[in-house]
Write a structure and sequence with these properties.
The strands form two sheets. This protein has an eight-stranded mixed β-sheet with strand order 5-4-3-2-1-6-8-7, with helices on both faces. Strands 11-10-9-12-14-13 form a six-stranded mixed β-sheet, sandwiched between helices. The chain has 390 residues and is α/β, with parallel strands linked by helices. The chain contains 15 helices and 14 strands. The structure holds adenosine-5'-diphosphate (ADP). Adenosine-5'-diphosphate binds at residues 203-205, 232, 276-278, 323-325, 328-329.
Length: 390
């Protein structure tokens, strides 16, 4: 089945047209700077060079319209469209074929992820209008986390308030955690039902997930994707009292404060250098102490959260690294694994130097196994689309 996977972010829209059986990617590309005066459209076919052009994208509708227009120039067929949806709220514990009811639910929970769900919903709406005969499937980043027990997802706030407004931990990156944990079980040659896994999705945004018997039992992101680890530009866990203190000191609004917490904090805020781990590695190597501190804090937090999930699951069989930093930074993986001595983890430096493949980077006698597994959210979305309506 040929599935068009649409991944609409807050100001970007990525797409891939792929065959779910052969995994062949026929076309892919992205629309950047949606909502700005001028945007960039990139498109490539059959693994060829990406062609880019400047196009204004006032909104997500105009972006998906440009993508479909480009695909119509080709001979490729589309049998279904799979959409990544950041927030499914309390409604979705699985992927769903989009009908009017599903659409209404996606919009109902949109205030929980306003930067994402509205744009994603606009893209779905356009696809439904343009190709009414094609199925659209919504794949939610949060649905994998809906198996969390109440003890893990409940905030220690007045319960009536949380119940009334559905305030709880929802998590993020569920599609990635689902993919790499299933792949890890395959690589270990064991049924996932028998494994305790901890998946570390470390990219621009980062989250860690505890997966017991194939089911998420805890994750580090919360009601929003702001908490947990310090990230590229997001602060991660923070004493709420600091928010009021800084707002009073600078006389700023809550929106301005949230802008600082989302866009000017994390490793960028600590280092004052960059949100990109490659820049931090380079600066730290040149003796920049703040860049080194930002890296040290990130590694410490990953290790600390992993440790808490070992406690939550009463053990762990394997730890997985994935996403931009997890897949590419051997130095970050090595620094994090330094903390895992108590688990009997031993890293093989040769395996840890490899790139771009599913690989076990722990030694054969390591008590707990450690894997690098490149994530593939597009494939999960395409496969779900096929499974539901293929
Ligand atoms: P997103 O959360 O935007 O999907 P990605 O998973 O693509 O992010 O990760 C992007 C991040 O990966 C970059 O900001 C960069 O810090 C990191 N990264 C990519 N390549 C390397 C590398 N070779 N070494 C260290 N970090 C890297």
């Amino acid at each position: 089945m040929n599935v068009l996977v649409v991944n609409a972010g807050s100001s970007s829209l990525k797409y891939q047209l792929l065959d779910t059986d052969t995994r062949e990617v026929f076309a892919k590309g992205n629309c950047e700077r949606i909502g700005s005066e001028m945007g960039i459209f990139g498109h490539s076919e059959n693994g060829g060079t990406k062609q880019t052009e400047e196009v204004p994208f006032p909104d997500h509708r105009s972006a998906i319209a440009r993508v479909l227009e480009e695909l119509e120039k080709t001979d490729f067929t589309i049998d279904g469209i799979g959409h990544r949806i950041v927030q499914g709220g309390w409604h979705f514990d699985d992927s769903a074929v989009v009908d009017d009811e599903v659409m209404a639910k996606i919009l109902e929970v949109a205030p929980l992820a306003p930067l994402h769900n509205y744009g994603e919903a606009a893209a779905i709406e356009y696809c439904r209008e343009k190709y009414p005969e094609l199925p659209n499937v919504a794949v939610f980043d949060t649905s994998f986390h809906m198996t969390m027990p109440e003890v893990a997802y409940t905030y220690a706030l007045p319960k009536d308030v949380c119940d009334k407004y559905h305030v709880r931990k929802y998590g993020a990156h569920g599609t990635s955690h689902r993919y790499v944990s299933a792949r890890c079980a395959e690589l270990m040659g064991k049924p996932i039902e028998e494994l305790k896994l901890i998946s570390c999705h470390m990219g621009n945004g980062s989250s860690i997930c505890a997966i017991d018997g194939g089911k998420c039992v805890d994750t580090s992101m919360g009601f929003t994707p702001l908490v947990g680890l310090p990230m590229g530009t997001r602060c991660g866990d923070l004493d709420a009292g600091v928010i009021q203190f800084i707002m009073n000191k600078y006389g700023i609004s809550i929106d301005e404060m949230l802008n600082i917490l989302n866009k000017k904090s994390g490793v960028l805020g600590v280092s004052g250098v960059s949100s990109d781990f490659r820049d931090l590695d380079a600066a730290a190597a040149e003796g920049n102490d703040r860049a080194q501190l930002a890296l040290d804090m990130f590694h410490y937090w990953v290790a600390k959260v992993v440790g808490s999930y070992v406690a939550a699951m009463n053990g762990v069989d394997a730890i997985i690294f994935t996403a931009g930093v997890g897949e590419n930074s051997k130095s970050s993986r090595a620094a994090i694994a330094e903390y895992f001595g108590y688990l009997g983890v031993k890293i093989d430096p040769v395996a840890n130097s490899k790139r771009g493949e599913d690989i076990m980077i722990s030694t054969p006698d390591s008590k707990v196994k450690v894997f690098v597994i490149p994530t593939n959210e597009e494939l999960v979305i395409a496969r779900d689309t096929k499974a539901i309506c293929g």
